[in-house]
Amino acid sequence: MNARQLKAFWNIWRQDGDGDGEPRLPRHVAIIMDGNGRWAKKHKLNVSRGHRQGTETLREIIRHTDDLGIEALSLYAFSTENWSRPAEEVAALMQLILDFFASEIDELCEKNVRILILGDKSALPAKQRETLIEAEQRTAGNTGLHLNIGVNYGSRAELVRATAEIARMVRDGEMQPEEITEQTISDHLYTRGQPDVDLLIRTSGEMRLSNFLLYQNAYAEFIFPEVLWPDFTVAEYDRCLAAFGRRDRRYGGRDSTAENGADQGGEGT
Q1: Alpha carbon distances (Å) from 169 to 119, 207, 208
Q2: What is the mean pLDDT of each run of 10 residues along the chain (269 residues)?
């Protein structure tokens, strides 16, 4: 992180919080990049221009995440449901995949970023499929930021895929049904070996997961800034990170400082 970015982050931490202690950053951030279409409509532009402007935001957020030393960043780029959008918009999104990796892969590799594509690449057009496979292979040995990009991704499909893999292992005698644990399921997801999501951000004010990392988001903190994705700045991102750092993550337990004899409610009560 350069000096200007570091100063900006600390200023936000002090202004929005109590100013004490070190910022507590998430290990894994997931972002649903929502609002490109509405941004384009607001500016009286074609929706493809909105997606392209969103790519500019994406570059800055990836760089900043890497600079902060966060372990993993998961981005929802194209869902299994997005195929139902107008053909012109789908074509524009497919072209953006090619353009993004053509312009960014050298820098990402230089920064030791490891790229992982979440989703079924086999259903993509040949050029896009080859580009994504090449990006994964080229960065496979990198040990820095895990950059997970959901392309033709749906969490339910991911869980079905994981279940089928485990079922085949049971059928082949590699494990017994009673040996299946939560870790077994985690080990058969695209994100195996990575920490679960700590912070999920969805821009544009929408408050839903839209079939993104359902299992991995089990104990994530959710933040829903109303700003549209193309207008989501590094400063907005820092505010989300600072808000995360001030939250009390109890995982269904209770703060040890809570009053004795308090009602024993469920998560968050």
Answers
A1: 22, 37, 34
A2: 55 57 86 97 96 97 96 98 96 97 97 98 97 98 98 98 98 98 98 98 97 98 98 96 89 60 48
CA dist 67 and 234 (Å) reads 12
* Catalytic residue flag (residue 34): yes
Q: If you search the block for the tokens 């998961």, which residue do you land on? A: 74
42: CB partners within 8 A, 6+ apart:
228
Number of domains in the chain: 1
For residue 41, being part of any structural domain is answered with yes
82 is catalytic: yes
What are the start-end ranges of the H helices in the chain?
A: 3-16, 36-42, 47-68, 87-110, 126-139, 155-171, 182-186, 234-246
Its domain, for residue 123, covers 26-154+197-246
Contact 100, 230 (CB under 8 A): no
- Residue 100 maps to which CATH number? 3.40.1180.10
Pairwise CA distance, residues 148 & 119, whole Å = 10
**What is the chain's Cα-based Rg?**
20
The structure tokens listed for 136 are: 């994964």
* Measured torsion, CA atoms of residues 120, 122, 128, 130, in degrees rounded to the nearest 10: 120
Query: Looking at the domain assignment, is residue 184 inside a domain?
Result: no
Candidates 34, 66, 198, 238; catalytic one: 34
Which among 46, 82, 142, 211 is annotated as catalytic? 82
